[in-house]
Each structure stands twice: as C-alpha cells, then as structure tokens.
Amino acid sequence: MKKIGIIGAMELEVEALKAKMDIRRTEQKASMEFLEGTLNQTEVVIVRSGIGKVNAALCTQILCDLFGVSHIINTGVAGSLKNEIDIGDIVVSTDALHHDVDVRVFGYPLGEVPQVGRLAFPADEHLGKLAASCCKEVNPDITVYQGRIVSGDQFISDKKVKDEIVDNFQGFCVEMEGASIAHAAYLNHVPFVVIRAISDKADDSAEMEYPAFEKAAAAHSAALVEHMLPLI
Ligand code: ADE
Predict the structure, then answer these.
(1) Cα 129 to ligand 1 centroid, rounded to whole Å
(2) Which residues in 75-111 are b (16+ Cβ under 10 Å) and which e?
(3) Alpha carbon of 231 to those of 84, 87, 103: distances in Å?
(4) Per-residue pLDDT of the chain (232 residues; tens, 9 = 90+)
(5) For tag attachment on the chain, is the N or C end more exposed, with fewer CB atoms within 10 Å?
(6) Which residues pair with 95 in a beta bridge?
(7) How far apart are CA 99 and CA 111, in angstroms?
(8) What are the residues facing 91 on neighbouring strands?
(9) Rounded-to-integer distance, Cα 47 and Cα 62, Å
C-alpha cells in the first residue's frame, strides 16, 4: 500500500500540511510526534524531525520501521548555491550528499561516508519528475530546478564557505537534513525526494534574508508536496 512519509525539520515546514490532514492517530517516538492519516486522499505520516542530520536520520528510520512508509518526501527551505536560483525558487533533488564528511586521509572522496559505497544518494526519478511538473502547475510564478542538494550540520552564511562547498560538490542548494534522509532511505530501499524552497543565498546576507523569507519559502514547498500526493 502507498503510504507517504513527509518530513520537515521545523514546525513551519509542516504546519500547513498538518492543518489540512485528517489525523487518525498520533504516536510519540524519539521526542517526535508522528501524525498518521490522510491528506489530499493519500495515506501519509507527517512529522517534524527537528534540525540537523542526526534528528533527520532517526526520523527516517522510524518512518521505515514503525510506519512502513512506501515513499519519503522531505519538504523545507534551503540556501541557494547558484546565482540564478533566487529566493522563493524551488530545488527538487536529483541526488543528495553530506558536504561535511571528510575521510580523505584514508582515500575516500570528500563527502563520502566510508563503507557505504557511494558519494551521493540518488533520488527517485518518478518522484523528482512529478515534483517538478506539479510545481509548474501549482506555482507558475516560481522557477523549479532539479539538481544536487548538499547537507551538513552547519547554517552556511559565509561566502568563502559557500564557494568551497560549490567548488567541491556542485550542489544547487544547501540545508541541514536532506542527505541524511536520503542516506537512511537508501539503506532501507525506500524511494525518496527532497524538495526545498530557497530562503537565502547562503552567503554573508543569509543571516538577514533567512528570517525574512523562511515562512513564505516553507509554504511554497509544502503547497507543492500537497498537490503531488495523489499522483504518486
Ligand atoms: N537552510 C536554509 N538556509 C540554509 C543555509 N544557508 N545553510 C544551511 N541550511 C539552511
């Protein structure tokens, strides 16, 4: 049976979806509240994971083990890593990787977790295409990009750090959970996609931009998730 796990790191990334769903039951686990029910005629489990890669990985594993989800969608906001990707635009993942992993001393490429066997975790193609095509319908004024999403346990707000991440990984946007959700979904053989709306440019202006734009950006991403659900 199709059952979609929807993860947002922060309440504002999932509050609109929670408000619209018909909740059948709620369950607490690892200090997270999992809401199970239907949204837009689709079986869903919606949860706020908390910020960062450990919270997001734990949350993904719980969705797989306790709720048996068939697909995972991560919705939220991110910092842009490309000049042409503007605040409010949406990035849909083609793949995701950890920009803050470094075991080069033992021969692994920068970003690769030893013994996992790959640098980047590929997103599900069907979910990616669906998200991109729905975005054009739901948000015709917003440009949607499909590309690599990179994650680390840092808020990027320094042009030098941003430029290094861009040079090393060719990402489209940066955030703090997507790669660990991708990593956990990959290990559990569950198809996933990360959908992020841009809240800032991940440079010296990010500290000012983020609080001003996070709410609108989170709403763009959530609206897209809601509309794509029945088509999965
Ligand atoms: N989420 C939104 N903007 C971000 C940034 N600049 N760095 C990390 N995560 C983010």
Answers:
(1) 24
(2) bbbbbbbbeebebbbbbbbbbbbbbbbeeeeeebeeb
(3) 29, 27, 40
(4) 999 999 999 999 999 999 999 999 999 999 999 999 999 999 999 999 999 999 999 999 999 999 999 999 999 999 999 999 999 999 999 999 999 999 999 999 999 999 999 999 999 999 999 999 999 898 888 999 999 999 999 999 999 999 999 999 999 999 999 999 999 999 999 999 999 999 999 999 999 999 999 999 999 999 999 999 999 9
(5) N
(6) 122
(7) 5
(8) 145, 196
(9) 10
Pocket of ligand 1 (CB under 6 A): 77-79, 155-157, 174-176, 199-200, 202, 206, 210
36 tagged catalytic = no
Two tokens, residue 157: 């707000």
Specify the pTM. Answer: 0.98
Residue 219: count other Cβ atoms within 10 Å of its Cβ: 16
Token reading at 159: 């042009």
Exactly one of 89, 200, 209, 214 is catalytic; which is it? Answer: 200
What b-and-e string marks burial along 177-199, b requiring 16 or more CB atoms within 10 Å of the CB?
bbbbbbbbbbeeebbbbbbbbbb
Q: Length of the chain, please?
A: 232
